[in-house]
Structures are given as structure tokens and as C-alpha cells.
Amino acid sequence: MYHYYCLNPISEVGIDAMTENYVPVSDPKKADALLVRSAGMHDMEFSPELKAIARAGAGVNNIPLERCAEEGIVVFNTPGANANGVKELVVAGMLLASRDIIGGINWVQENEEDGNIAKDTEKAKKAFAGCELEGKKLGVIGLGAIGGLVANAGIHLGMEVFGYDPYVSVDAAWRLSRNIHHAKTVDELYKNCDYITLHVPATESNRGMIDKNSLGLMKKGVVVLNFARDVLVNEEDMIDALESGQVKHYVSDFPTPVIAGVKGAIVIPHLGASTAESEDNCARMAVRELMDYLEYGNIKNSVNYPDCDMGMPGDNKRIVLLHYNKPNMLGQFTKILADDNMNIADLSNKSKGAYAYTMIDIDSDIPANVERDLRNIKGVLKVRVLN
Ligand SMILES: NC(=O)c1ccc[n+]([C@@H]2O[C@H](COP(=O)([O-])OP(=O)(O)OC[C@H]3O[C@@H](n4cnc5c(N)ncnc54)[C@H](O)[C@@H]3O)[C@@H](O)[C@H]2O)c1
Ligand SMILES: O=C(O)CC[C@@H](O)C(=O)O
After folding, report:
1. Reaction catalysed by this chain (predicted)?
2. pTM of the model
């Protein structure tokens, strides 16, 4: 039996995919697994019971990844599951920034009682006119799940697209249209583009990447779109750029007290992934990842431990160990098993940065003293015996 707790509402599609072995609890401290969307977890204390956290979404800056790794808690996300939802809103954002659709709709509402509204429209509408996207230059920073879709959509809209991502994965690169220009430096993209859209994670090194220096390199009247995270943009510098006309519009999916209501800022209440399809996709993937880990120890799409998959254990017993990535860990594990005359049927060991994961299938029962001895090895962070 596994206990889970949802820190945010998670689509029923995911919850329904759980078997009767999964029971919701009303106290997160009693949970084997937590499901979360954007709830901040940095101030949460985790109980020793907690084995995994699944983020039904992409961004994991709301989760203390390092502390979780230290406590042997595997954190998953759902790469790509909400990418199409975000892509579509980015296209809407470019359109909102190109024509004064919002101003026009407001004008109609303000004049709803005007009996001559049809005639007056033809005089008033020039105030809300704009430009088309076709032929304009679009710069996409970050060419992962979302950025790749946005870049390809730009090509389909007839835009000239520049992409910048020095760390792009081979799979993501294969998905890109060959008509996208490969920007060798981000400055090249800043200098050339009419629309610049951010699709990078909110890592320490990416924080504040759009500031007065980068804004100063951009074309006057540029549109900047941020559907990634507020902290990527220095909002005070953005306000100066909007006031001076350097930036025509800043389209952001992240309201903050600083940017909400600023003239020229088009701020959306974090709706990028708020579609039925994205919510279902994320919930389904998050639950699948949790169940595979809790029941079989398989790790797929973890952000703090390596992926490692040995399928189902069949008739074997499986022991899984979360530990530091340092010499002689495997040697110590196998010695304890050999000293107890246990036969290893299968083994996998993977590492990611400072952390590592080992799965061992044994063709006999695993006695409690073996589990205890493994747990006592210096550098072992968590041990689970799965039946
Ligand atoms: N608005 C929303 O509702 C919403 C929804 C999903 C994701 N997001 C945000 O969007 C971000 C991206 O999501 P994704 O699914 O595309 O992630 P992803 O991991 O598939 O892609 C991120 C890409 O950014 C690249 N990158 C990292 N730092 C970079 C840099 N300095 N310059 C250029 N490229 C860089 C990486 O190499 C990677 O290819 C998430 O981290 C999250 O914060 C927001
Ligand atoms: O859960 C959400 O609504 C937003 C998720 C989004 O910001 C993400 O990073 O995936």
C-alpha cells in the first residue's frame, strides 16, 4: 500500500490511473509520494517516509532538489507534457503584442450601449491597428520541448526564426525545422530579432539574463515574451526599457507586484499549461513515473537522480539504493550480499553528478540484517527492498 498527497489539484486522469494500492492521505508527512504543480516546497520539511516527488509540469524551481537528493527523495518532472499548451499561448502572446486586441475589446465593452457602435467602430479602430507576424524575425532562447515547438510554429507563421541553445539535446535538435537559423551567440539573436521569447529553466545562471545590458543590445521596439519564469528578467530594467520605448511590449505569464499593471506589459496569470490536455498529460506522466518508482524502483525523468530502468523483477527480489557517487560503493554492496551467500541475478548502477542509484535483483529473499548493513554503509542515503 502506498500513500500519496497532492500539494496542488492534479488532474483526475492521473489520480484515476492509480491502482487500489494507492491511498490519499490528509497529512503530507505520512505520504510515500507527493504530487505537486507550482506550490513552493523550499520551506517544507520532509518525513523519512517520503520516497518521491512528482512535479506535474516542467519547471522545478519550486522544489529543493539538492536537499531532496541528500534525503534520498527522487524528484520527477514531466518533460514536454505541457509544451503544446505553452506554445499556443506564446503564439497568442505574439499576436496580443502585435495588434491592440486587448485595447480594441475594451473599447467595444466600454461602448456597448452606443446605438451607433457599428458605425463608430470604423472610425475608432485605427487606434488599435498593428502589424503582422509574417516576415518578422523571431528569436527563441532555449530549444527544448517548448522552445522547439515555438520555433517551428514561427516558421509555419512565415517568420524568420533564430534559435539559441548551447546545450540543446540531440533529440530536441532533430525536432527543429531546418529553416531555423542557428544563432552562435545570444547577442546575435538579441541584435537581430523583432520578437524574443525565453524558454529556459530558472537556474541560478539564467536568473536575470534579460537585464539592461541584454535589453540595450536589442532592436528598438522589440517584443520580449517570457513564458518561462519571472526571475529570468530583471523587471526594474524591463520597466525602464518599456518607458523609453526600447521594448514595445513585455509579454509575461508571471504576474509580480513589480510588473503587474505596468504600461506596455501584457501580463497573463500563469496560464501557459492551463489547458485540459496539458493538465491531463502532466498528471498521467507524473503518476506513471511515481508508480514505476514506488513499485519497481525504476527511475524515468528524474531531475536529481539518474534514470535507471530494470523493468519488472519477475520472481527475483529487488533492492534499490540511493547513494553518493563515489568509489567503492558497489564493492561494499556486493561484499555484504556475498557474505550472506546471496546471488545477484541482475544489477544496474547509474550516476548523475554527486548522486548515484543502484538496483540489484536477488534470486532469494533479502534478510533484514542485509538491508540494515547496506543502510549503514557511509554514503548510502536510502535503501528500499521491493517485493
Ligand atoms: N508558463 C508555463 O505555464 C510553463 C509551462 C511549462 C514550462 N514552463 C517553463 O519553461 C521552461 C522550459 O520548459 P521546457 O519544457 O521547454 O524545458 P526543456 O528542459 O525541454 O528545455 C529547456 C531548454 O533550455 C536550454 N537552456 C538552458 N539554459 C539556457 C541558456 N542560458 N540559453 C539557451 N538555452 C538554454 C536547455 O538546453 C534546454 O534545451 C521550464 O523550465 C519552466 O520554467 C512554463
Ligand atoms: O502547473 C502549472 O500550471 C504550471 C506549470 C509550468 O509552469 C511548468 O513549469 O510546467
Report:
1. (R)-2-hydroxyglutarate + NAD(+) = 2-oxoglutarate + NADH + H(+); (2R)-3-phosphoglycerate + NAD(+) = 3-phosphooxypyruvate + NADH + H(+)
2. 0.96
The bridge status of strand 181-182 relative to strand 160-164 is: parallel
Is the CB of residue 145 below 6 angstroms from any atom belonging to ligand 2?
Answer: no
Taking the C-alpha atoms of residue 42 and residue 44, their distance in angstroms, rounded to an integer, is 6
pLDDT at 387: 73
122, part of any domain: no
Parts of the chain with a pLDDT under 70: none
383, 337 in Cβ contact below 8 A? no
Predicted local confidence at residue 294, as pLDDT: 98
Nearest CA owner, ligand 1 atom 39: 144
ipTM of the complex: 0.99
234 and 322 share one domain: no
Contact 146 CB / ligand 1 (< 6 Å): yes
Q: Is 249 in the pocket of ligand 2 (CB under 6 A)?
A: no
Range of the domain at 335: 308-382
Residue whose C-alpha cell is 536568473: 207
Could you tell me the CATH number of the domain that includes residue 221?
A: 3.40.50.720
Instruction: Report the chain's C-alpha Rg in angstroms.
Output: 25
Read off the CATH number of the domain in which 350 is found.
3.30.70.260
pLDDT tens digit sequence for 5-23:
999 999 999 999 999 999 9
